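Good day; I would like, with your permission, to put a structural problem before you. What I wish to show you is a protein chain and, alongside it, a tokenised description of its three-dimensional fold. Please examine both parts with care and let me know of anything in them that strikes you as inconsistent. Thank you for your consideration; the sequence and its tokens are set out here:

***
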Amino acid sequence: MRAATCTKHARERQGRDVAGKRRIMRSAAVRRGAPAGDSRRTRNSAEATEQILLDAAKRVFADKGYIRATVQDIIESTGLSRGTFYLYFRSTDDIFVRTITKVVDDIVASSRVRSGHTLRQRVYDNNLRYFEIFGANRGLLRAFFEASYVDPEIGRKRAEMRSAYIIRVRDHLERQRQLGRCLPIDPDAAALSLAMMVEGTAQSFAVLKMEPFEQPLELKKLCLAVTEIWCRAVYTDPDRPLTPTAAKAPAVAAGGKRRKQPAMSARDR
């Protein structure tokens, strides 16, 4: 695998000098000045070309993976030349990082959304968003995980994505612990355990399509199970309304089914 990566990088270094010269020529042309309308049209055209390459790269990486994808694969369906590719990107690594960054940002952002009237609803909603993003980007994330083992920069990006999610969970657990809504837990250890449960489940089910059982699992049913494990592990009463306003609203269980709120146990009062 390392040899394949080195060969891939060697092929691409040949185009980098050309890319640098063309960037200088393009920048010089801009500095010489042009009518405002022409500048806008040029900029819009450049952005459109870049997006065409990004869209093509997303399809190629999702289909062929990180190691096997080449510049030729990316430009093949676009009608663009190899020289045009190097005007915008240094290598397949460069365009891959640009392609995967949007997905990583979506995954991190999904953990920041707060919804639901109870802790159970909030955890379920966050988990479902996480699973759905993984499922919608199955091929690209498979390439991302592959690349993280052979490219240090991409490995750092995966570590940053994972760390951001774990810290977000830890901060949430610490807030709930201070409010008396958690069982006696170590927030750091609990956050690492829960976050890895969610990520591992999302990767196995949505990305790797792991189906070890006689009957296929349904996404929302799996999300309910993961949410139940999470809630039982850390919360004293995951169905207690989070605000006085929420207490007046009908209780809706994760997954959209109405149900009666459970009686509060003596230790939760």
The chain has two domains: 2-89, 97-259. The two ends are 58 Å apart (CA to CA). The domain at 97-259 is CATH 1.10.357.10 (Tetracycline Repressor; domain 2).
